[in-house]
Amino acid sequence: MLASEAESSKGVGSTRMPTGENTIATKTAQRRKNRDKQSLDYVLRSGLAGGLAGCAAKTIVGPLDRVKILFQASNPQFAKYTGSWFGVVTAMNDIYSQNGALGLFKGHSVTLLRIFPYASIKFLAYEQIRHVFIKSRDQETSIRRLASGSLAGITSVFFTYPLEVVRVRLAFETKRDSRSSLPGICKQIYHEQPPLPSNATSTHASSVLTASPSAIAATTSSTVQQITRRSGLANFYRGFTPTMWGMLPYAGMSFLTHDTAGDWLRHPSIVEYTTLPSTAASSSVEAHKPAQLKVWAELLSGGFAGLVSQTASYPLEVIRRRMQVGGAVGDGHRLGMAETTRAIWRERGFRGFWVGLTIGYIKVVPMAATSFFVYERGKYWLGI
């Protein structure tokens, strides 16, 4: 009887006293559970993971990004390299011979300054918007994922677009004697003003000769307002409209494709080959958290997401680049989205909207793969 009681007490003790490994796993799961997605702690951690992911991705493709901008914006010095399979390599070699290795990363400091808040806001916005749109597994639909990604992309680009314009303008410069500092390029963009139309000038001159002083003052004020309304801080939002339209398919398709590819790679038939068992949910507390994909699988899903999103949004990206460098070429006339579209069509036809797409793939696929990989691993390391 004593023996049976001992066994009974031993059995009860075993259920009440879990092993050390299970205790640690349970506590870790509980800590992750306690981090509500709308809490400041979760926002800061997800923002940090997103910012680091963006910086890592942009650093890897820095030289390709420089050449891509030169191609898209139709830089006269590099127009001869477009349309050739070896044009990218030749252009990079040309930049290296003229400006050294640093020339391949011109504007990269501004890129990092922009990409950290951009990626941080994009990823944390996606987490927050997704939390609102998708509250359960039953709501995991393609439309909700697409909408969450699109809104996250628009949110991030709205707050960081001026830095993107500065980065593009720095990358657009190719001559050694035309290098601009960050403050210098900001001043140049700020003070750029579109030329006054010739008919407006003649009308203004004739009105000055015939009108009364009060009419002259009114005409002058109107003219100044027309100019200043399209200069100053507004210059830092050149190309913002096509950027917003382009971000809808780009960010939306990026997150949608990545999440969908992640679901495919976690299919029960192949899950043992594609995931890390040690990162699987250790208890019912965090059963909603999927296991981390292996390195190759995570890079594959991220790269595929970059391929799809780049294809969906590339024509709008070309239009945006041309609008962003509008003050650096020609007479400084600021082209609207429709006018820029007509100019590209007039110059190169349909193919003009796909100039640099090859380098776009070469750049975006590893960039997206790196970005999603660092973000997913960063979230895991940070306990979210």
What characteristics describe this protein?
15 helices; 384 residues; globular; mainly alpha
Please provide a written account of the structure.
This protein has 384 residues and is mainly α. Helix content is 70%, strand content 0%. It has helices spanning 2-16, 20-34, 40-60, 62-72, 87-99, 108-133, 142-172, 182-191, 198-210, 213-228, 240-265, 271-274, 295-324, 337-348, 357-381. α3 (40-60) crosses α6 (108-133), α4 (62-72) runs antiparallel to α15 (357-381) and α11 (240-265) packs antiparallel against α13. The longest helix has 31 residues, at 142-172. It is globular and about 55 Å long.
Strand count, sense and closure of the main sheet?
Answer: none
Oligomer: single chain
**General form:** globular
Count the E strands.
Answer: 0
Structural class: mainly alpha
Percent range for helical residues?
A: 55-70%
Give the N-terminus to C-terminus distance in angstroms. Answer: 50 Å
Query: Low-confidence stretches at least 5 residues in length (pLDDT < 50)?
Result: 5-29, 200-209, 216-229
What is the element string, with H for helices and E for strands?
A: HHHHHHHHHHHHHHH
Quick check: average pLDDT? Answer: 78
Q: Report the sheet-strand fraction.
A: under 5%
Q: What is the structure about, briefly put?
A:
This protein is mostly helical and 384 residues long.
Which helices and strands occur, and which strands form pairs?
Blueprint (H helix, E strand, L loop, with lengths): L1 H15 L3 H15 L5 H21 L1 H11 L14 H13 L8 H26 L8 H31 L9 H10 L6 H13 L2 H16 L11 H26 L5 H4 L20 H30 L12 H12 L8 H25 L3
